[in-house]
Amino acid sequence: MSLLQWNLRYRAGEHLSDIPSPLVERFTADLVAGDALDLASGPGRNALYLAQRGWRVTAVDGSPIAIGILRARARDKQLTLESQIADLEREQFVVQPDSYDLICDCYYLQRDLIPSLQAGVRPGGVLIVIAHLAGPEEPEGTPTRVRPGELRGYFADWTVLHDYEGQPTESCHQHAVAELVVRKG
Fold it and tell me: CA distances (Å), 122 to each of 36, 38, 160, 172, 176, in order?
């Protein structure tokens, strides 16, 4: 979906939940707050959740509408976080190496960013990835959907904390998902 389409959806009131991903809640509950990146944050449900728990959050999304909503929500909740409008496909945001204790990449797939995400996590840090899963008619995946086992393959030398492929646990998503939570050694 294009950024224009996302802007229209956000403007129409779609995808505006402020309930964080259950996976983010579950795997950050016992982590010591540090520096976090919420990549393709949308209106910031995960970024706001993390900021409320003391994380120093950078939220990045290509949609000015989504970032505007995130900034307003942060002001309303009196939260401090960094937010940036950046088209990830045009490399308008660069993940700096060894910069984050946590990176969340929920429901956004850009395969050429994976090496940067890996490098961006500090040793001992955690990466949470959720992507839509390709169906049996798409055995090689698609530009926006991973093939079965694909996420695991990118992180063979990381400690796997959670690996799931199947029906989504969030009611706002209808397509099968691949979830991966890994810790950098």
Answer: 11, 15, 16, 31, 30
CATH number at residue 98: 3.40.50.150
pLDDT score of 149 more than 70: yes
Q: Is residue 43 helix, strand or coil?
A: coil
pLDDT in tens, 4-14: 676 567 667 66
How far apart, in Å, do the first and last CA atoms of the chain sit? Answer: 35
Domain that includes residue 43, residue range = 3-183
DSSP state of 155: T
Question: Domain total for the chain?
Answer: 1
Query: Please, what sign has the CA dihedral across residues 166, 167, 172, 174?
Result: positive
pLDDT in tens, 31-77: 999 999 999 999 999 999 999 999 999 999 999 999 999 999 999 99
Whole-angstrom distance, CA of residue 7 vs CA of residue 14: 10
